[in-house]
User: Which sequence fits this backbone?
């Protein structure tokens, strides 16, 4: 009677193997086509049109009618920040970017995890301005051109969701770095207004003071890389392309500036604090804004028609489905950053088990942990356990690609795609609380790092306590920050 059980056991094993094979066949790895374009070995030559100084009248049109304009949203072409560089290769620019990126990520982690990190503030239609993305120099990655003062002086401003204070270099300079375009001179502006030390706006400053001789409010902002700006805190009129004006915006007029702020005239703080630009214009436009970060190759293609804007006001929410939103998460110890709950990540259509909420959740008591959406950080950084699980899942799903030994810079997973034009790669999607999802285009997670055909998985691990969704992963999406509704959306193909 012994043989039948053995036969039954063998049959059971065969059935289990067949079921396993059937499940594997039913769930193939989802892939998408990736155009493998290496970095160009050519050196950059001339700066882009947006970097030139021949746009003095850019904001002069329609100023008289601006207050009554029915439509105040303006869109025009965006060039990549690479175009500001002269005599530099793409590989050199990338090296600068990654070095700067590490410093910024460290600063964010230190600020978000600090025990006493609570920071005070460091209409319809909306207003819009052109966005320019950056690789080479300066503390920021993306820039917008606005007009400052009356008459308006064009100024390239860093867009920074990780900062609140709006500031720019001002004449006369005690110390000023080289910027693109003229330095703003408040003495020539009819709308410039100094703030008294007792003004409510002055009291909102985290690092402010008073010049007792002039009874003038003064500000200072220091950054983790050693950059610093200091000067008078005042109010001024900001003008956007097409003539839409916003009066009495509190701005730092920096007479003493030094550090890595090359090219930009200053910084437009887009954080959640009370002195950020969205907060200051909220009575007229609400606290909603959106931006679209063009990809790194848009300016490399002279025939590209890709354009982008940063939009403030109700127009920022136009045509955004409710299902695209995920709730903002509040960190009581750090009010500036935009926190969201990253619920998981899929690779090849399958959720990665090791990307656990426990590794990505914000601890409100300590201010550590959590996930922020940041315009100034390039590479997405995940808590180390979550990153390791994601990396391993991507490697397993990319078994047909040739690994490049040794990694590159902060990247530990790179592939040799030399000689290949179009490659099938596993899909990567980020899942957020509330059901929102961002399905990434392949160029948002496989980036070229040399001219030989090496591409790296553009995620990294961090032990700094806070995870960061960087701008490489955001490119091509219109990222919507609904401050009134306290939610964030990622709209694909929104540029």
Assistant:
């Amino acid at each position: 009677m012994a043989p039948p059980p053995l036969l039954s056991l063998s049959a059971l094993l065969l059935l289990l193997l067949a079921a396993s094979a059937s499940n594997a066949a039913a769930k193939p790895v989802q892939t998408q086509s990736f155009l493998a374009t290496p970095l160009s070995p050519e050196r950059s030559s001339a700066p882009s049109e947006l970097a030139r100084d021949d746009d003095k009248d850019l904001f002069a049109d329609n100023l008289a009618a601006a207050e009554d304009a029915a439509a105040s949203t303006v869109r025009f072409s965006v060039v990549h920040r690479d175009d500001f560089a002269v005599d530099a290769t793409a590989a050199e620019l990338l090296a600068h970017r990654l070095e700067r990126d590490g410093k910024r990520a460290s600063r964010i982690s230190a600020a978000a995890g600090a025990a006493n990190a609570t920071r005070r503030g460091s209409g319809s239609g909306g207003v819009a301005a052109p966005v320019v993305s950056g690789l080479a120099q300066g503390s920021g990655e993306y820039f917008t051109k606005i007009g400052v003062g009356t008459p308006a002086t064009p100024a390239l401003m860093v867009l920074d969701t990780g900062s609140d204070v709006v500031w720019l270099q001002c004449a006369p300079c005690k110390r000023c770095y080289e910027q693109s375009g003229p330095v703003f001179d408040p003495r020539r502006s009819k709308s410039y207004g100094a703030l008294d030390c007792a003004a409510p706006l002055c009291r909102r400053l985290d690092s402010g003071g008073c010049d007792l001789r002039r009874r003038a409010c003064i500000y200072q902002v220091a950054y983790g890389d050693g950059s610093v700006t200091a000067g008078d805190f005042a109010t001024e009129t900001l003008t956007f392309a097409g003539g839409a004006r916003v009066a009495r915006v509190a701005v730092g007029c920096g007479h003493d500036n030094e550090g890595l702020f090359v090219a930009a005239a200053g910084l437009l703080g887009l954080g959640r604090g009370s002195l950020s630009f969205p907060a200051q214009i909220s009575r007229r436009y609400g606290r909603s804004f959106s931006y679209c970060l063009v990809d790194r190759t848009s300016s490399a293609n002279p025939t590209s028609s890709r354009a982008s804007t940063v939009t403030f006001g109700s127009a920022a929410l136009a045509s955004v489905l409710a299902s695209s939103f995920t709730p903002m998460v509040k960190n009581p110890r750090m009010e500036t950053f935009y926190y969201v709950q990253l619920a998981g990540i899929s690779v090849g259509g399958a959720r990665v088990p090791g990307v656990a909420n426990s590794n990505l959740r914000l601890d409100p008591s300590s201010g550590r942990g959590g996930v922020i959406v940041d315009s100034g950080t390039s590479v997405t950084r995940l808590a180390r356990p979550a990153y390791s699980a994601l990396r391993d899942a991507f490697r397993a799903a990319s078994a047909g690609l040739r690994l490049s030994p040794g990694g590159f810079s902060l990247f530990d997973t790179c592939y040799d795609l030399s000689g290949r034009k179009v490659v099938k790669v596993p899909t990567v999607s980020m899942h957020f609380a509330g059901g929102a999802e961002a399905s990434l285009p392949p160029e948002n997670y496989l980036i070229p790092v040399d001219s030989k055909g090496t591409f790296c998985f553009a995620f990294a691990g961090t032990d700094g306590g806070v995870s960061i969704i960087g701008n490489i992963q955001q490119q091509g999406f219109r990222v919507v920050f609904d401050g009134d509704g306290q939610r964030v959306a990622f709209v694909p193909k929104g540029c």
The mean pLDDT is 81. The longest strand covers residues 245-258. Residues 30 and 447 are 20 Å apart (CA to CA).
